[in-house]
């Protein structure tokens, strides 16, 4: 039976982890997916794995507003009518206390997790509002809700994402556009490796005593938000590994 066509979804941070899996799950459900990230080789692999041509790699940096605007203007006609935006691109740098933190790391997190998300939303939201329907899913974090040692700036950027999700929803009232926030806890992706500056051993050690969430768990939560009847707005989903307690995140070095 032919797959029902569901429209175009744009997924940021689609070159690894949650974003990659979200792109695959949405594609499987009949969406055409614009897969956005900086690493062209990773995006090409993702697109090549799908034989239907429904995944379009879009090499862009969410921090570069002009570059994003150009890339969106140049989307092929069949990927232009975006109805779903998944703001997933994000990162964390460092794990020490604020008093010994690095300004460059703070800036990178703020530029990516806050300004980057605003850059992409600012360009896509008018398209959603003018078409009279659509859905934005922002990826937050339990770090925004439960402080842990060393979470500081990363956690605060995610608190911004949670609050902005609520305010997006208010501002989009009457447009038919829904807004959800999915806030995962510890999940095994490239996130920890990035946070520990590329140290894979450190990153792996983090999950030694805990069974972390998988990209699939998060992708299914995103897909569930989208699949609800049009009258339902899922405001927030929070999910954690069973073994993760409220003070345990990427606390300190393993
Ligand atoms: P990954 O490191 O595996 O993926 C992060 C993605 O973001 C990559 O595709 C990366 O692509 C992309 N990205 C980073 N910076 C930019 C940028 N400037 N422009 C475009 N894309 C960018 O981590 P996760 O999948 O775990 O992280 C996805 C989201 O989930 C993040 O927002 C993270 O904060 C959040 N999160 C993660 C949790 C976890 O425990 N893993 C838990 C809760 C939330 P590229 O480098 O190719 O640009
Ligand atoms: C990152 C996951 O639980 O370590 O958002 O904060 S956690």
SSE topology sketch:
Layout: E1 7-12, H1 17-28, E2 31-37, H2 40-49, E3 55-59, H3 65-73, E4 82-87, H4 103-131, E5 134-139, H5 152-171, E6 177-184, H6 191-195, H7 200-205, H8 215-227, E7 236-239
Parallel strand pairs: 1-2, 1-4, 2-3, 4-5, 5-6, 6-7
The structure holds NADPH dihydro-nicotinamide-adenine-dinucleotide phosphate and 2-hydroxyethylsulfonic acid.
NADPH dihydro-nicotinamide-adenine-dinucleotide phosphate is lined by residues 12-19, 37-39, 42, 61-63, 88-91, 112, 116, 139, 141, 184, 186-187, 189-191, 194.
Explain how this protein is built:
It comes from Streptomyces subrutilus. This protein is of the alpha/beta class and 254 residues long. It has a single domain (7-238), classed as NAD(P)-binding Rossmann-like Domain (Rossmann fold, 3-Layer(aba) Sandwich), CATH 3.40.50.720. The protein contains eight helices and seven strands; from the N terminus they run βαβαβαβαβαβαααβ. The protein is globular, with a radius of gyration of 17 Å. The structure holds NADPH dihydro-nicotinamide-adenine-dinucleotide phosphate and 2-hydroxyethylsulfonic acid (8X3).
Question: How would you summarize what this structure contains?
Answer:
Helix 1 crosses helix 8 (215-227) and helix 4 (103-131) packs parallel to helix 5. This protein is α/β, with parallel strands linked by helices and 254 residues long.
